[in-house]
Every structure is written in structure tokens, then in C-alpha cells.
Amino acid sequence: MAYGTRSYARGYLSSGGLPPAIKWLLIANVAIYFLQFFMGTPTYLALRPVDVVTHFMVWQLVTYMFLHGGVFHILFNMLTLWMFGVELERTLGTRRFLNLYFMCGIGAGACVVLADYLFGNPRSMTIGASGAIYGILMATAVLWPDRIILFMFLFPIKMKYFVAIIAAIAFLGSFTPGNGVSDVAHLSGLGFGYLYIKMRRVRGLEFDPVRMARQRYKAWKLARAKKKFQVYLRKKGSDRVN
């Protein structure tokens, strides 16, 4: 929990309710966890590098973020999302916050795929929102480096030092394969979180997957309409000849 200024405490203890992105991410993650609990983990939604590369199951780069391996796994991720994400969404806005969240999660997944093919087991399975969550922690540290939080709910520490500690733990853990934790996803999430906040300060370099998808869809519709019109003109021309 927050230890320092009132403004920081209001970031996630406000009576105004949860901002929309945080609310729906919490609902989606908890609902899917209960489905997992009763029905088991759907392996085609977890991140398996061999599936992404050889079977082109690229959706796994998104869906793996909504799966969790146990109650403590989802509890840590959702508690961190709530504690640090509320103020971050209110500062960035819902669209930019979602851009940050998915950039960190998808980017972390892509790094896991690459790392497992180069140094690990491409058939290994990764689940959890930790890449996106660590990106939120890094973004918070970049924006408010001197904010005081309670490390392990006991020790007051500045946000920048807290993130430095978890980054060091993830870095050291990456040299211990098979520990059950995706340290590559954690480090990658931190890196993409830092990159996103820095990109916001450079005009025209913001990652916006929603806008990109809309632009691609509009371009596809335009190309399809042009193709239909060309077919229509050719058909009309042939009718005139006949």
C-alpha cells in the first residue's frame, strides 16, 4: 500500500470507483481464472513458442496474459494492477493505459518466444499477466520515481528503488532456468514499460494497436471495395461487347 503523499493514496483508494480499463481487466482475469479452475487451462491459449512460430497461433501473445497458474499468482498480479494501475490510467487516459498494458504484455510474450528458441525449450508453456504488470510498475517508477511505497507492506522505499530491486531479482533469476518463473517476461515487461513512457515524450512515436487495427481494417475495406468496383466495370464492359 502507499505510504507517502495523500495524492498517491487517492490514486487507488478514491471513492470515485475504478477507471474502466482497470475494472474490465480485473473482471476478465478473475472470470477466466474461475473457468480455468473448473475446466483446466486451455493449452491453445497459453503461450507456447513452438505453436506461435510453427503453427502461427499468434493470438497466444495476447491470451496467455489472461491465464494464471494459481490463486497467489493471480492475486499478486491483480493486486498490483489495482494498486498501481488506477492512478496510471487516470494520468495517461484509458486508451493510452491499454496501449501500455498490451504493448508490455505482447512485447514480453514475443521476447519469451525468442528466448525459448535461442536458449530454452520452445515447447515450454508460459501464462500470466506479469509482463504487463511489470510494465505498469516501470511506468509508475518513471513517472513518479520518488513516490514512497511499502515494500512487502512493511518497509518504506522509493518507487525507483523498488523497481530496481525487482529488476535485479528477475535478472539473476534468468540465469536459473526451470525455476517456474518467466524472468524473461518480467525483464521484458520492465523494458517495454520504460520504452512506452519515453516514447510518449517524442511526438509521433506512440504505440497504439487499436488505432493501427482500425487503419488496417479501413485499408482492407477500401481495397476490397476497389476490387469489387473493378470486377463490376469489367463485367459491364463485357456485357456491352456482347
Report on the architecture of this protein.
The chain is mainly alpha-helical and 242 residues long. Strand 1 (148-151) and strand 2 form a beta hairpin. 68% of the residues lie in helices and 3% in strands. Helix 7 packs antiparallel against helix 8. The chain has a two-stranded antiparallel sheet. The chain is built from ten helices and two strands. It has helices spanning 6-13, 20-39, 49-54, 60-63, 71-92, 94-118, 130-143, 159-173, 183-200, 209-241; strands at 148-151, 155-158. The model is unreliable at 1-15 (pLDDT under 50). The chain has two domains: 6-207, Rhomboid-like fold (Up-down Bundle); 209-242.
